[in-house]
Every structure is written in structure tokens, then in C-alpha cells.
Amino acid sequence: MTVSEYQLEADTIRPSLSTVAKQYLGNDDEVEDVVQDVLLRLWDMHADVRCPMASLARVLTRNRCIDLLRRNRFTTDMETVQLAIQPTPIDTNERIDRMMAIIDSLPALQRTILRLRHIDGIEMAQVAEIMGMTEVAVRKALSRARMAVREIYSRRYE
User: Fold this and answer.
1) CA 60 → CA 1, 65, 67, 78, distances in Å?
2) Which positions ≥6 away from 77 have C-beta within 8 Å?
3) Measured distance CA(129)–CA(83) in Å, rounded
């Protein structure tokens, strides 16, 4: 690709690259930086790249945006976080009792699978083996049990 072809192609795809970057980042300054980085990278590859290079440029833009988002991810040390409301042991015990009562009200299959998986901490493959079911069937039954627990809890206590 010649210099003039590159310039024409870069001018053509620049707005679409800005749109892609804006969807990920939102900040106009960062968007412009990403577009510049991508165009510079494409310039470095211009001898090997053929027209149209729009799809390659969009992929490079998306990957660059994801890299920025991963690097700038805000993390907080959990030890420094102060909770506004500290649950008391009575509240915790009461919640556990509520959940156990709800679990006891489930159908036998859902109750057994839920207990094996979450209370006993057994892996899905082992639960499937114990229950004589496929792993897919166990996952589906577990999902239904969780949904039932969530619905019953929200109905009774919220």
C-alpha cells in the first residue's frame, strides 16, 4: 500500500474507529488516543496491509480499548472497605434459618441437589454421579432450585 492510499483509507475509516472506541470508552480524549494508536500501528504495517483495511482497523481498535479498560480497572482492597451496616450474629443466624426453611420446602430432587452442591460443596460431576443423572440435568435442576429459593425468599421477606 502506498502512502497516498494509506492516507485516503485512514481518512475514510477514522470516523468509524472513533465510533467503535466511543462505545467502549466514552471519554473523547481517550477515544482520540486510541484512534491515533491504531492508525500508527496500521502505518507500521502499511507495507503488508491491503485495501480495504477497515475491518482490521476495527478489530485493532476494539482490542486496544479492551486493553485500556483492563489496565484502568478500579479495584478496592476489601480490608479497607467499611460496611455501612454490620450484620449482627443474630441477623446472620436468622437469615440462615430462613434459607434452610425455604430449602426444606423445595421438592425432594431440588432440595437434595441444592444441599449436595452448596451445603456439602460437592462438584457437579460428583452430584450427577450420586443422583444418577447427567451433569446437564443436574445443572438445570440446580438452576430451578435457585430460582425457586429466590422467588420464595422475595415473596416472604421483601
Assistant:
1) 18, 9, 10, 35
2) none
3) 41
pTM across the whole model: 0.46
- Residue labelled with grid coordinates 483509507: 9
Distance, CA of 112 to CA of 104 (rounded, Å): 10
- Which pLDDT tens digit goes with each residue over 112-152? 999 998 888 889 999 999 989 999 999 999 999 999 999 99
C-alpha span between 88 and 86 (Å, rounded): 6
Nearest partner of 13 among 48, 43, 68, judged by Cα: 43
Q: Which residues contact residue 64 at a Cβ distance below 8 angstroms, ignoring those fewer than 6 apart? A: 21, 34, 37, 38
Burial 65-102 (b: 16+ CB within 10 A, else e): beebeeeeeeeeeeeeeeeeeeeeeeeeeeeeeeeeeb
Greater pLDDT, 70 or 145: 145
